[in-house]
Model the fold of this input.
Amino acid sequence: MSIQDAQLTDLLTNVHSIAAVGVTNHAASSGYEVLSYQQSQGYDVTPVNPQESSILGMPCAKSVNDIQDPVDLVNVFSETADLDEVVEDAANKNAKALWLQPGVANETAEKRAHKAGMTVVKDKCFRQVHQTLMAHKPF
Done:
């Protein structure tokens, strides 16, 4: 099911905290760039990567479940991420949405996220969508 622009705008407006799963310290990677953008837009972002201690000055969590604060949106950058575990953790955190960056897909995990009440966004870059839909909206 494709998500409409109005739903995306509503989601981006009401999200405050983001778990960024699979981002790395590689400045040339799209995940790093999107994480930096999310941070610049005022979102409370927690990088999730068990191999990193911090990214962009933010401490990394080992998993979504390890994040102490509430999580509104789980943004997955790594196609090798265990999406079943990520969805389970997102559901445990009562996340509103699961955002799968381009190249990340798992139909079973997507269905589980929907069943848990999450909005699922896939095959869309968070930064591109945000820049298009939120360019003139205050955060």
